[in-house]
Amino acid sequence: MIRLLAQSQNAIRNRDKIKQVVYVASAWALFLFSSAIYTVCQIQRVSNLNIQDEEDQEDPTLAWTYFAIYTCGVIPMIAIVGNIVQYFVHHRWVTKGGKVTGVLTKVVPRELQRGDFETNEEAGRYAAMA
Question: What region, left, alpha or beta, does residue 87 occupy, with left being phi > 0 and alpha being psi -120 to 50 degrees?
Fold first, then answer.
C-alpha cells in the first residue's frame, strides 16, 4: 500500500478509529446472527424430541420462515432506508448548512504577531494555549 505523505496525524488516527469501530460492529453482527441460528436450531431440536406441552408447541418451520424474512427482507430494508435518510441529511447539511460569502473579509495569517491582538492580555492567553 502506498502511503501518501500529505496525510495528517488526525486523518491517520481517525482512520484507525473507524477500523476499530468496523471490527467491533462486524463481531457484534456475527454474534447476533449466530445466536439467532442457534435459537432456531434449538427450537427445531426441542420440537423433534416431543418434550413440549401441547399449548407450548413451537413450529420450527415458522421459526425458520421468520428468520429468513427478517434476515433477507426486514433488516436490509431498514438499513437501506436508514442509509438513504443519512445521505439526504448529510447532503442537505453540506449544501445548505454553511454561510456562503462572496467577499473574503479577513485573511488568516500563517503566523500570529503580537500586533494581531487587541490587548497584551489576549496575546498572553493565546501564547498560553499554544
Answer: alpha
